[in-house]
Amino acid sequence: MRVLIMSFGTRGDIQPYAALAGELARSGHDVDFALPEGFADLVPKGGAGSITHYPAGSEMLRLLREVMPELRGPRDVLKTLGIMTSAMRELNAECWAAAQSSRPDIIVYHPKCLAGQHIAQALGVPGVLSLPLPFFTPTRAHPVPFIGGASFGAWGNRATFEFRRMAGILYGGMINDFRREVGLGRIARLADPLKNPDGSPVHVLYPYSKHVLPIPRDYPSSAHVTGYWFLDQGDDSTWEPPARLVDFLANGAPPVYVGFGSMGFGKGANERREAILAALRVNGLRGIVATGWGGIAAGESGTDDILVLEGAPHQWLFPRVSAVVHHGGAGSTAAGLRAGRPTLVVPFLGDQPFWGARLHALGAGPTPLPARNLGTGLNERIGDLVRTESYAIRAAGLGAAIRAEDGLSIGVQVLEQIVDGTAR
Fold first, then answer.
1. What is the 3-state secondary structure (H, E, C) of 165-208?
2. Residue 37 buriedness (CB in 10 A; 0-12 / 13-18 / 19+)
3. DSSP state of 104
4. Which residues does 387 contact at the CB level (< 8 Å), separation at least 6?
5. Which of 198, 231, 6 is nearest to 98 (CA)?
């Protein structure tokens, strides 16, 4: 079969779908992958099937990286909204161009690619929504992840999933403009993204582990929790660790990793840096500090015990450290748990408090430390992370269970069953 994958966002939004593309190709399927040029290096090579990269969302990614960190007030935000809207329309058009070239049998789309479901309808092929967190499918078991980890009771939890309609509310005009351009009729702003126009359910692939979040009993058969999709070093073969990182790891005890990915941008970066360096020094720990997109200020640490760098692939680095401190993004959470490392989550926004609460409930790390409390609470919380033996024991057990899963194979099997009509 020929599969078109569309994804947009930060590296964590792209990497699982790059892994899926690689597994599809190894299984003999042809893949067309629409993603920003800035992440083209993640596209795997090799396999019985082919993988073709189509650029989509490069301008949006540039704005996120270069413009958003410079915003300083409401006037700047308003000025940027028009530019962002134009870039979103460009992303839709680029995804449509990729689809016309691909002529796929099935489309897998990240929800940030707003046109995904509508492109599938226009081409008359199945569209499969995919996100590595349980954001769309209503359940009594837990609330939508964007409002934290606290339960609102069975019916309250289900009600929170109405949040899934937010994209239609915010961008309904843009979506209907796109639908008109590709020959489709209008839809309501409150249209359910889990329903096709004919009323049939939209299949959803959830690439996270049942060992981290059990599959709810009230999930429909169209919701598929596959296990994590990891892009292993064999797929990401262009990266080589810098000599100073290799030397640092070799010349002492395994360090603690601290990094917040794309969170924070430049605002407060110096304060976060000082809080992290102080917490590592106070606790007598070696550390690796990843600056990411500027959420932590760059520069030498002033000590041989702490290495500051821009970043390194988590699947390579995390097995080589003793513990991890991160923002709680779905990808970072998955990588830390797979490596079996105790984890402290410092959530900034979105689903991050949800994953932080899950890690603590699973016994794999301390209570999450909100980013706003980094300066006052990190010293104690890092000490708790590295000195509580039960966190390391529980994290190691979870890591073994996650490594035993084969989420990629299950994801491929689900797509094959949808295409041949045997999926429930």
1. HHHHHHHHHHHHHHHHHCCCCCCCCCCCCCECCCCCECCEEECC
2. middle
3. -
4. none
5. 6
Can you tell me the distance from the alpha carbon of 109 to that of 55, in angstroms, rounded to the nearest whole number? 15
Query: HEC profile for 269-336?
Result: HHHHHHHHHHHHHHCCCCEEEECCCCCCCCCCCCCCCEEEECCCCHHHHHHHCCEEEECCCHHHHHHH
Per-block mean pLDDT, blocks of 10 residues, the chain (424 long)? 93 90 95 93 85 91 67 51 79 96 96 95 97 95 86 92 89 94 94 91 97 96 96 63 94 95 73 94 96 82 91 92 95 95 94 94 96 93 96 98 96 96 78
Q: Quick one: 50 exposed, middle or buried, by C-beta within 10 A (0-12, 13-18, 19+)?
A: exposed
Please name the amino acid found at residue 348.
F
Residue with tokens 């890690």: 359
pTM comes to 0.91
Question: Is the torsion defined by CA of 134, 140, 146, 148 positive or negative?
Answer: negative
Q: What whole-number distance in Å separates Cα of residue 211 and Cα of residue 402?
A: 7
Q: Specify the CATH superfamily of domain 243-403.
A: Glycogen Phosphorylase B; (3.40.50.2000)
User: Tell me, what's the pLDDT at 236?
Assistant: 44
- CATH 3.40.50.2000 location in the chain: 2-228+405-420, 243-403
- Say which residues have a Cβ less than 8 Å from residue 143's Cβ, sequence separation at least 6: 150, 151, 152, 156, 157, 160, 161
DSSP state of 256: E
In contact, 319 and 395? CB cutoff 8 Å: no
SS3 251: coil
Fold designation for 2-228+405-420: Rossmann fold (3.40.50)
